[in-house]
User: What shape does this take?
Amino acid sequence: MISVKNLHYSYGRSIIYNGADLFVGKGQKAGLVGANGAGKSTLFKLLLGEYEPETGKVEISGNILLVPQEVKHDPDMEKASSIRNYVDPKNEHEDYELLRIISKLELAQFGLDHSPKSLSGGQKTKLAITRALIQEPEVLLMDEPTNFLDTEGKSWVMNFLGRYPNTLMIVSHDLNLLDSKLDKVFEINPQTKGIDEYAGNYSSYQKLKGDKDALLVRQIHVQGQHIKQMKKGYIKMAHVRSEKAVRQKLQLLKRIEQMEDNLPEMPPEAKRIKVNLPEPAWVGEVPIMAKNISKKYGDKVILDNINFDIKRGERIALQGPNGAGKSTLIKILMDRLKSDSGEIIANDKLSIGYYSQEFETFDFNETLFQTMQDVCHLPEGVIRAQLGRFLFPGDKAFQKIGSLSGGEKTRLSIALLLVQNYNLLILDEPTTYLDVLSQRLILEALKMYKGAILIVSHNPEFIDELKVTRKFYLPENKMVLV
Assistant: This one.
């Protein structure tokens, strides 16, 4: 059971929660939604006792476990001698039970005796999911558990969670896969700083939320027109000098100011966001080409005689299940990894902008403004305007990168790529941490980009809307025109 009453919490001068309430009963399953940076991960830390509320009450009944978006430094994982020791420290399960779950999460190749410390960030997150599913805590919190999974893996995890016997609260952009099993959906309200509850499943939430936002937009437009008419009336009274007229003008001006102050904020989905991008640097007709590329790890063949090229300005989707060699091919194209045979032919004017899920290029102690200034050396006003277009308005520009959510880091990464004049973008799962609004923003920005794009994504709708020209499938080594 989870109970939150009259929660108040701030981060610096930013109010995150202002009188928020939430209740999830024993054995219930709840989804938690909200824009990137709205406070979803903060709420989880409050539930875990890592943060203390300024006022209000947080109660948890039973033991609680969180699977975070990124498992960076899990002390239990660091001291575990093997995968088995980490996921089943009390040795309560048979090997076949553990291997069944591990294989569904694409980790079977490592075996139960493998050290978990050597795994990648995404693999560590999968291992943390495995541990949570095996241990079955009374309250399970999951923050984007399907981020690093392909379509089959996502469906399996969500089906498993649908049968989970205890209390579950989940943040995910794939809540539709858990739709029929949800009892309620909570949304963090950016206007009220509260938590709105929607009874029923995710489909019900989407309909109710859509209707609510449509009504709010209409109300804002009506009030906006009313304010506009009042301002016209105020201008018409400008030439009147009598004492009575002056009092009426002051009263009208005060009413206008009050109405403007009380005008609700437009829902983010209703705002039109325009991003201005620089022209890509000139490059030849074929910026990069792979000829007869092969790569093995030990006895395992990852890439076998790959022939691949990217033409100027085109968009290619690199497709295939996890482990098919997509990331290996990208690293070879970028000269971060040597192939066993074959060659990469790159135009001497080629300039690559690269996005990965690891955020390894960020200095987490720098602010967003400093980071963008280091990259593009533009005037302050231009930088702040560009950050605003990527949903980092006002003082958010001076927040430290380390305090951002995964989705906010993704938005900043893409913003940094798009203010430079790269002629090829290589994007490895750019929608992993993004909420629906942020996905739409990034999609529209990439649509306007005139350089070439090579993209890896398990989000078929994103790929379709980006209008890729070709798809290259691994491990089939097959290029298909779209």
